[in-house]
Amino acid sequence: MAHNILIIVAIFSTFTAATAGRLITTTNSSSDIVNDGVHGGYGGVLRLNPFLFSSSSTEESGICEQSYGFLPCTTTVFGNLFLILVYGYLMFIAATYLSAGSELMLEILGPGIVGGLFLPVLGALPDAMLILVSGLSGSPETAQEQVSVGMGLLAGSTVMLLTVIWGTCIIVGKCDLQNSIAIDNQDTKGFNLIGSGVSTDIWTSYSAMIMAVSLLPFIVVQFPQIMHSTSGRHVAVLIGLIVTICLLIAYCVYQVYQPNIQKRRIAFAKHKHVRSRILNYLKTNAYEGLLDDKGHPNREVLFRLFNSVDVNGDKHLSQAELRALVVGMQLNDINLNEDDAVLKVMKEFDTSGNDEIDFEEFVSGITKWIDEAKSTILASHVSGPDTTNYFHDYYEETKREHYLLGDEGGDHDEENGVKDPQWTTIKALLFLLLGTIVAALFADPLVDAVGGFSSATNIPSFFISFIVLPIATNSSESVSAIIFASRKKQRSASLTFSELYGSATMNNLLCLSVFLGLVYVRGLTWDFTSEVLVIVIVCIVMGVFGSLRTTFPLWTCFIAFVLYPFSLVLVYILDYWYGWS
């Protein structure tokens, strides 16, 4: 942190010196005359070096406008390129500070509000600030020209995360695939397009679905253009803004309560797996068949199994005897809390409420489980009323369901806690404060530098902001995602891709709400059909792709990679061949 602060101070000092050290001449060959205070503007004069202020930022005066009145500016190509690199690096530092502060707050306060609300908002803060300042300054006409920088950033961030970064995470996180599931920390097949890949949990698929749904505001605000109507565009922007804010609130609420939902789902999956394991155990030990000729539970076989569990022979199964059964089945693969599993089985079987299970309750409970297994498996491979093949199918299904929920057990990290909560809190707040200040201070100069580079090179500012700015504002989370994916585990892959989908969702909601609010308040024109089309295509393709499957072979990364240049070419063709913008 101290090293980065020194870098910021050094850059800031260099900028300040640059604004005071302008090159001057005493020749009278230029019109850039500055009164020297002695000759009244005649004879001896001071002149700005015309080479440094040589282009089209302000075509009439030939002089650029300094941000905040003291930060340097230029109209030359390489000068603006240098400013973009410097200001972009400062935005990268801001994003890094915000990310570090958010992670520290997560360690202190846990998921809930912090993980569901603060982290997504802070992660999108640099992008939101750049979008905001792109249309705040100057007249509405100037803002209309600069707001394309904000749209370029919005589209570029989403597209980069879902294409380049997504595909890279597939490559660095690939493991060997076995039965369509990636084996943790096993990567022996090299770059096998089908035999290696990445597996995620079902919650990652939900994140992809939510990302696809977050496109709704784009469709709402684009509706007048879809209907080829020139009226009602301002109203459509307002409606789109309201829809975006509502979806943003709903998404944050979901993120807040999602950990609790996930825990309940995992607990239920574990209980189903216990049921399937007990049925499989009973089937294995029922040598004469668990079902009779009519497909009903065989009471004689169940009675012998009941007695084998009833160790003390009192014709009732106690919690201790049930626990011995559960422990004997060795359910270590699902990180089972054995006492909790026993209580749930007891509660489900014990209809009399006496904390014991008699034989009739045992038969009734087993019958209910068998019926559930039959209804879950639609068709067994072997027909016949007495077949119990579906027990194995039911067991495999519950095992896979538990795997897809991503429970690797253990909340060891949470149990360790934070060693010094007070200092960690102060450190987190300092990171967040410094990151916010740096992002707020240098967002406007970065937008001005992009505009200056666009004017000097005649390259549309949209393409500059689409390609360059997302690298600065999303580099921290991109590098973090790639490093996390390289751990080659299902859990780390799930968190990585959930983060990518979540970042795209926040772009579609938080950043878009800022953009729409800016357009509505300043009375700007919404005319970004091609840009919206690119966002919609990429999010739908990757959203549907991510929601329909949990395993991604290596070949899927090429789909993501191709979408990036496709997006650039599509915008160029639609804007400059068909004039959609």
From TrEMBL:
<feature type="signal peptide">
    <location>
        <begin position="1"/>
        <end position="20"/>
    </location>
</feature>
<feature type="transmembrane region" description="Helical">
    <location>
        <begin position="203"/>
        <end position="223"/>
    </location>
</feature>
<keyword id="KW-0109">Calcium transport</keyword>
<keyword id="KW-1133">Transmembrane helix</keyword>
<dbReference type="GO" id="GO:0015369">
    <property type="term" value="F:calcium:proton antiporter activity"/>
</dbReference>
<feature type="transmembrane region" description="Helical">
    <location>
        <begin position="505"/>
        <end position="522"/>
    </location>
</feature>
<feature type="transmembrane region" description="Helical">
    <location>
        <begin position="112"/>
        <end position="133"/>
    </location>
</feature>
<keyword id="KW-0812">Transmembrane</keyword>
<keyword id="KW-0677">Repeat</keyword>
<dbReference type="InterPro" id="IPR018247">
    <property type="entry name" value="EF_Hand_1_Ca_BS"/>
</dbReference>
<dbReference type="InterPro" id="IPR011992">
    <property type="entry name" value="EF-hand-dom_pair"/>
</dbReference>
<keyword id="KW-0346">Stress response</keyword>
<dbReference type="Pfam" id="PF13499">
    <property type="entry name" value="EF-hand_7"/>
</dbReference>
<dbReference type="InterPro" id="IPR004713">
    <property type="entry name" value="CaH_exchang"/>
</dbReference>
<keyword id="KW-0813">Transport</keyword>
<feature type="transmembrane region" description="Helical">
    <location>
        <begin position="552"/>
        <end position="574"/>
    </location>
</feature>
<keyword id="KW-0050">Antiport</keyword>
<dbReference type="InterPro" id="IPR002048">
    <property type="entry name" value="EF_hand_dom"/>
</dbReference>
<dbReference type="InterPro" id="IPR044880">
    <property type="entry name" value="NCX_ion-bd_dom_sf"/>
</dbReference>
<dbReference type="GO" id="GO:0006814">
    <property type="term" value="P:sodium ion transport"/>
</dbReference>
<dbReference type="GO" id="GO:0005509">
    <property type="term" value="F:calcium ion binding"/>
</dbReference>
<feature type="transmembrane region" description="Helical">
    <location>
        <begin position="428"/>
        <end position="447"/>
    </location>
</feature>
<comment type="similarity">
    <text>Belongs to the Ca(2+):cation antiporter (CaCA) (TC 2.A.19) family.</text>
</comment>
<keyword id="KW-0739">Sodium transport</keyword>
<keyword id="KW-0106">Calcium</keyword>
<keyword id="KW-0732">Signal</keyword>
<protein>
    <recommendedName>
        <fullName>EF-hand domain-containing protein</fullName>
    </recommendedName>
</protein>
<keyword id="KW-0915">Sodium</keyword>
<feature type="transmembrane region" description="Helical">
    <location>
        <begin position="528"/>
        <end position="545"/>
    </location>
</feature>
<keyword id="KW-0406">Ion transport</keyword>
<dbReference type="Pfam" id="PF01699">
    <property type="entry name" value="Na_Ca_ex"/>
</dbReference>
<dbReference type="GO" id="GO:0006874">
    <property type="term" value="P:intracellular calcium ion homeostasis"/>
</dbReference>
<keyword id="KW-1003">Cell membrane</keyword>
<feature type="transmembrane region" description="Helical">
    <location>
        <begin position="153"/>
        <end position="173"/>
    </location>
</feature>
<dbReference type="GO" id="GO:0005774">
    <property type="term" value="C:vacuolar membrane"/>
</dbReference>
<feature type="transmembrane region" description="Helical">
    <location>
        <begin position="459"/>
        <end position="484"/>
    </location>
</feature>
<keyword id="KW-0472">Membrane</keyword>
<dbReference type="GO" id="GO:0005886">
    <property type="term" value="C:plasma membrane"/>
</dbReference>
<feature type="domain" description="EF-hand">
    <location>
        <begin position="297"/>
        <end position="332"/>
    </location>
</feature>
<feature type="transmembrane region" description="Helical">
    <location>
        <begin position="77"/>
        <end position="100"/>
    </location>
</feature>
<keyword id="KW-0479">Metal-binding</keyword>
<feature type="transmembrane region" description="Helical">
    <location>
        <begin position="235"/>
        <end position="257"/>
    </location>
</feature>
